[in-house]
Specification:
With about 550 residues, the chain is α/β, with parallel strands linked by helices. It has three domains: about 120 residues, no CATH class; about 80 residues, Ribosomal Protein L15, Chain: K, domain 2, CATH 3.100.10.20; about 200 residues, Four Helix Bundle (Hemerythrin (Met), subunit A) (Up-down Bundle). The strands form five sheets. Strands 1, 2, 3, 4, 5 and 6 form a six-stranded mixed sheet that branches. Helix 4 crosses helix 5, helix 13 packs across helix 14 and helix 15 crosses helix 16. The radius of gyration is 28 Å and the shape is globular.
């Protein structure tokens, strides 16, 4: 939540006039991602973003006529009187007269003013800052790169009043701590870089809806179905990850094993005795790319990121919700119900002859989870559902040459057979994915609502992973075994513990990535999206619930 003494960035004033929710998410909550439009705008600004080396003072009365004309680029000034701060693209200075010039990537708008209010207000705010710094400033210029046209914007009384009014409104909004609701069916949303964070159509579709009902309002597929970045997994023992220019290099001794462009990397996972240089770590932190650390056996042990997400407001709500036993139980019910229903769906899809009694029992247990009166009761329901589900698990595995895997039940810490070794590895990978998603949204992944806090355990990530365990982790294990990608020779058993060998781990990671990149039609919103993107959507929907925008957390339940 912003303090009243903070300066309002003029760019945020532009965003506020365009869309109040966009300004709140970007300025107050610290969310920002690039899309093709913001990247194009950055490219168009590449010249004006080169800051001048000297900043002149306003010319005095005796100097005004003889002072040379000066063009100041990327000039940063603030105004204590107006409470504004701006980094101005260009300021044309002639004596005491200053004219701000703001660059816009598109063409001149087809309206009477040849400009829109967000741009006019932004330019006027720059003019007010220049006035407060001793310059005369009666007008500004919008330069539209697309049409190479300059448009004069006079700073008349009406525009000045509008600018100051919007600045006050933005300050009040920041102090309120309550984000405004998304725009409704707005044509602005498709081009917004924060549409995958804001979720405008999804929020409006879910408001006032019971968790089990269908969404009737059409939801536009506004966000990309999958992210462009790719994960980098390093499993070669003794390897080292370093930085070479814009690339990550994986080396062992002096041999380069792999290269990955940093801008195209979404995360880095290191298994066992793999090193990473300080230079690589610093660059990844600056780019917001997490580094995940696993034990040799695949246990998710740590994550290294840059400075934490700025959304303290969300973490305050998270801690308050976790302290409320009734609200936490509501969320725990949703997580558990989603897990049981998805377990039942996986059995129906992959088991040759699933037991009707087990399917019936799982349906009943899912309904009981929705009505559980305590967390202890819910734990009992979940445990019973897991036993019934895993009693049928072997029926989803194909027996045959090269696949001599039996499954007599779930065991772990350590897993004692190949199937359980794969399940534990997959659950560790799923916890990693959910931890990254929680951090990217501003959550504290270590404080959950169902899993009890424990040192080093990402409880919230495990909460959110529950509904995806069957359809992501278990499904990947079944697929890898049934397709013959993983064979009995890929495992080693020592002192009763079973683990994957390096070659088998690489093939399983390939199967894991294929599963996460599988594009499906979302059961609630009816648009196509890959599973990794769905993780992000679920985490954002949880944030919307905590912020009071949604009446319930909508668990992900596949059909």
């Amino acid at each position: 939540m912003k303090s009243t003494v903070d300066f309002i960035p003029v760019r945020m004033l532009n965003e506020f006039v365009y869309c109040p929710r966009l300004a709140y998410l970007e300025w107050v909550q610290g969310d920002f991602v690039h899309n093709v439009h913001t990247l194009e705008g950055r490219f168009r600004h590449r010249n004006v973003d080169k800051e001048s080396t000297t900043h002149p003072r306003p010319a005095g009365p005796s100097e005004a006529e003889t002072a040379p004309s000066i063009h100041e680029r990327s000039l940063t000034l603030s105004s204590p009187t107006e409470g504004l701060i701006a980094r101005m693209d260009l300021v044309e200075i002639a004596g005491k007269q200053a004219t701000p010039v703001d660059y816009k990537r598109g063409a001149v708008p087809d309206n009477d003013l040849m400009a829109f209010d967000p741009e006019r207000v932004q330019l006027c705010a720059q003019g007010l800052i220049l006035r407060d710094n001793g310059y005369d400033c009666d007008e500004g210029v919008l330069y539209f790169v697309g049409s190479k046209t300059r448009v004069r914007v006079p700073f008349d009384d009406d525009l000045v009043a509008l600018t100051r009014s919007k600045a006050r409104e933005l300050g009040d909004l920041a102090e309120s701590g309550t984000p405004p609701l998304p725009l409704v069916d707005s044509p602005k949303c498709p081009k917004c870089s924060l549409v995958g964070i804001c979720l405008p159509d999804e929020v409006h579709a879910l408001r006032g809806e019971s968790p089990s009902s269908e969404v009737e309002r059409p939801v536009r597929a506004l966000a990309a179905p999958r992210d462009l970045g790719k994960p980098l997994y390093v499993v070669e023992q003794g390897a080292r990850v370093g930085r070479s220019g814009d690339n990550l290099e994986v080396k062992k001794a002096r041999e380069v094993l792999a290269k990955a462009h940093i801008a195209e990397t979404s995360q880095v996972s290191l298994f066992g005795n793999v090193q990473i240089t300080t230079q690589a770590m610093r660059e990844l932190a600056q780019q917001g790319i997490p580094v995940c650390h696993f034990s040799y056996g695949g246990w998710f042990t740590a994550i290294t990121t840059g400075m934490q997400h700025k959304n303290v407001e969300l973490r305050i709500r998270q801690f308050a919700m976790a302290a409320n036993s009734e609200k936490s139980l509501d969320l725990a019910r949703a997580f558990t119900r989603g897990k049981i229903r998805n377990s039942r769906t996986l059995l129906r899809r992959n088991h040759g002859e699933p037991s009707p009694d087990v399917l019936r029992s799982l349906a009943q247990l899912a309904d009981q989870a929705r009505r559980a009166e305590s967390s202890e009761t819910l734990l009992g329901i979940e445990g019973l559902a897991a036993r019934k589900y895993f009693s049928q698990f072997s029926g989803m595995l194909k027996a045959g040459e090269g696949v001599p895997f039996g499954f007599e039940g779930r065991n772990r810490r350590p897993p004692r057979d190949p199937v359980n070794a794969l399940l534990s590895f997959a659950y560790g990978l799923l916890a990693k994915e959910m931890t990254i998603a929680c951090l990217s949204a501003g959550f504290d992944p270590y404080l959950g609502f169902y899993h009890r806090p424990r040192y080093g355990r990402p409880a919230l990530a495990l909460d959110l992973a529950e509904e995806f365990r069957p359809i992501i982790a278990d499904s990947t294990v079944i697929m890898a075994l049934n397709n013959g990608e993983i064979r009995s020779t890929d495992f080693v058993v020592r002192q009763g513990a079973c683990a994957l060998k390096p070659a088998g781990r690489k093939r399983f990671l390939g199967a894991w990535e294929r599963r996460l990149n599988t594009t499906i039609r979302h059961p609630r919103f009816n648009y196509s999206m890959c599973y990794r993107k769905i993780f992000s959507v679920q985490v954002r929907l949880l944030a919307r619930y905590l912020e009071g925008e949604l009446p319930d957390y909508p668990s992900f339940e596949t059909r």
